[in-house]
Design goal:
Helix content is 6%, strand content 52%. The termini are far apart. The N terminus is likely disordered. Keywords: Signal, Thioester bond. InterPro entries: A2M/Complement_sys (IPR050473), MG3 (IPR041555).
Length: 273
């Protein structure tokens, strides 16, 4: 019985010291940034980490119980080969995707329905996985109702160091298709090519030949014995309250034998004159 117990304890001890290390990998490698791989061992051992990414090679030898490897990925290749040996044994050999650290792009536009030749005013807030503002290059464009990119709207943009918001104006062509359009935003790889479709962010809107809504027109006249000094206030507003910009034709006539045509054309600014 005593001999069996010693053998069992010896086996347990061997299993503890020969357990596999814990390797902590990121879900993807961040393009043009530092990346970190962590290896946790039961005891201090030597690890060899090899990373190949689009011609870039990283080869590091580390001794210790908790090992941290930091490296930079700058190639536009979509994946990297990671190989890790711990204490002479192969523990990892796999491919990791490489992409920009872009988690979400919030896209806001000023309207939901536009006409031909109008400008789409766009505001963009790009965020990383940690919640910081993404500072890399982005490509923005309009995709028309037939699914084609309007090449004249294709731009490369990025946030500056003093602001988190990107503001752009994209013009809808005067001769184009009606239907559902989208504002399309994607991160850009080194070399100017688009990243895969998983990192495509869109905002939809309609392009229609719509009519302007009805509005109310009010006129206010102040009593005055002198027609030339009589003041007239004109107010034009849409039913939802927004003022109308346009022209108004004011026509005044004296009542009597010597009637005079005092018509006047003026421009209404902010709905009032």
């Amino acid at each position: 019985m005593r001999l069996s117990l010693c053998i069992l304890l010896t086996q347990l001890s061997c299993n503890v010291f020969t357990s596999d290390p814990v390797i902590v990998l990121p879900p993807f490698l961040k393009l043009n940034e530092q990346n970190v791989i962590t290896i946790v061992n039961e005891k201090s051992v030597k690890s060899v980490v090899r990373i190949e990414h689009g011609g870039e090679k990283t080869n590091k030898v580390i001794q210790g119980k908790v090992q941290t490897i930091s490296f930079y990925t700058g190639s536009s290749h979509p994946s990297a080969h990671v190989s890790i040996e711990v204490d002479g044994a192969q523990q990892l050999d796999q491919m990791l995707p490489v992409r920009p650290d872009l988690f979400n792009v919030h896209i806001h536009i000023d309207k939901t329905v536009y006409r031909k030749a109008e400008f789409v005013n766009v505001r963009i807030l790009p965020l990383t996985h940690s919640g910081d503002v993404y500072r890399g290059d982005l490509k923005i464009c309009l995709v028309n109702g037939k699914g084609f990119v309007e090449s004249a709207t294709l731009k490369t943009i990025r946030t500056d160091e003093t602001s988190a918001i990107i503001s752009e104006q994209l013009e809808i062509p005067s001769h184009t298709f009606f239907g559902e359009w989208t504002v399309k935003v994607q991160p850009v790889e080194a070399g100017g090519k688009f990243i895969d479709e998983k990192l495509t962010f869109e905002k939809s809107f309609q392009v229609q030949d719509y009519d302007l809504p009805n509005y109310r027109l009010y006129g206010f006249l102040e009593d005055n014995s002198n027609l030339k000094e009589t003041k007239i206030t004109i107010e034009a507003k849409y039913f939802h309250g927004k003022p109308v910009n346009g022209s108004v034709h004011v026509y005044c006539q004296e009542v009597g034998a010597t009637s005079q045509d005092r018509s006047h054309l003026t421009h209404v600014k902010s709905g009032e004159w």
